[in-house]
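Invent a record, attention on tokens:
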Amino acid sequence: MFTADYHPKVEKDLKKIAKTDLELIEKIIVAKLFSRPQLYGKNLRGSLKDYRGLRILKYRVIFKIVRKKVYILAIGHRQEIYQEALKRVF
């Protein structure tokens, strides 16, 4: 079983997401990322090469696996989340 650690700005990300979408995102994060995160998402490239991106509806969850912990960097709409994630890495 994996545990989660969230970037402090993820709470702000969640406020931008519709409640119905947010409920689904939370369920999928618990079901996939807390059990076997290495099986889900795709490896990102460039400056985010140490992270993975999980697609849920029109949103992306940007995360990194460190030992038995999933570090969630950002959650948001696919058009803007990669730029936001880059700001949080540097």
